[in-house]
Amino acid sequence: MLKKMEMNWMSTEMKMRGLRIFGVLLAFLLLLGVSMVLLNNVVATPASPRQVQIRGWISNLSAAGLTSERQAAQTQLEAAGEEAVPALVTALHSDNVNIRANAADVLGYIASTRATNALIQTLGTDPASAVRANAARALGGIQDAAAWAALERASVLDTSPQVRTNANDALASIQDALVQRAGRDVSQVNLATAAPNSPNTLYLASGRDLLISHDKGATWQTLTQVLPSVVASMAVNPTNENIIYAGTHSQGMYLSTDGGKTWQSLTRNFSNEAIGQSTVTAITVDPTNPMRVVMAHGIRIGDTGSEFFPLGILFSNDGGKTWGNVMDLEQGQYVTRLQIQKGNVYALTNDKVLVANFQ
């Protein structure tokens, strides 16, 4: 009986050993197969002389200063145009900070929308402010509305004043391009904005007309004379592009729940003084809580309303029905953009960013 048990144990052990050997052999064969596929691909698609040439120019972007070699490389890459875009996008991940910064710069001159997503990632994640600044400027050169939300975030949240400035300039450049595509004069359009999670959906405020595009600005629908007044600020709900908040120059704040066709006043909900002169200079909606709205407001006085007195930044947790105070504003603190991140409100005013906590 004992001998039979020993034989059974030995049989089981041999089976287990065989399975282990089989597993190791299978893993080796799989690894060998993958290696062969990769090797075949490398052999089948060697770098062309043109690709080698483009990579050589990119390697010459490593100088911090504008050397003659770097300038020549930039000129050649810009002339190569679309052909150089894939290699330049790859260069955005280089270990050399100068190559990353200069590659972003060249991509802005080439102005290919194929680089938009890579530049958005660089703007949001690169540790070097010089690289982020060039990425922001490049996105302004490309004028792709898909970068709108990322540029708005960078224009307020980036720690570098230069990045914030370049992001604001890029937004202005994209707005001008959208206005031209819509067939309007730049001087007749107050502002542009994009639906945060629907980058194809864009809005232009022109006087009391609201222009809407659902294809990134290729075509536009005009809702004539629907806006309650001249608009100073606008924000779109991150989960419903038909919910729009508009801040006016002299009549406070309004809400539309039908994509801009009709509007209802929210001014009475946050101010009982200076009705008719209340100005909302900036609005944002919390990307993690679409019912939380933050806005900066003040009043205009005088016959022409030329004097502006900032009052404060308010928040609502119920979509604008009721409001609480986030912070008071002092004279000269004209807020142009707002962002919400991790329970904090960030307000861009002139060249400074004010920060306050909801709690």
Strand portion, in percent?
Answer: 25-35%
Largest sheet, spatial ordering of strands:
1-2-3-4
> What is the correct CATH architecture of the largest domain?
7 Propeller
| Spans of at least 5 consecutive residues with low confidence | 1-10, 37-44
Please tell me the overall pLDDT.
Answer: 87
The count of β-strands is 15
The domain count comes to: 2
CATH fold call of the largest domain: Methylamine Dehydrogenase, Chain H
Name of the CATH first level of the largest domain: Mainly Beta
Helix content: 40-55%
Classify the secondary structure makeup into a structural class. alpha+beta
Termini separation: 77 Å
The major beta sheet can be summarized as:
4 strands, antiparallel
- CATH homologous superfamily caption of the largest domain: YVTN repeat-like/Quinoprotein amine dehydrogenase
Helical segment count: 10
| Mass-distribution shape | elongated
Radius of gyration: 28 Å
Strand and helix order: HHHHHHHHHEEEEEEEEHEEEEEEE
Descriptive notes:
With 359 residues, the chain is an alpha+beta fold. It folds into two domains: 51-175, Leucine-rich Repeat Variant, CATH 1.25.10.10; 191-357, YVTN repeat-like/Quinoprotein amine dehydrogenase (Methylamine Dehydrogenase, Chain H, 7 Propeller), CATH 2.130.10.10. The protein is 41% helix and 25% strand. The protein has helices at 2-44, 49-59, 68-80, 85-91, 97-110, 116-125, 129-142, 148-157, 161-181, 267-270, and strands spanning 191-195, 198-206, 209-213, 221-223, 231-236, 244-248, 253-256, 264-265, 278-285, 293-301, 307-316, 324-328, 335-341, 344-349, 352-357. Strand 2 and strand 3 form a beta hairpin. The radius of gyration is 28 Å and the shape is elongated.
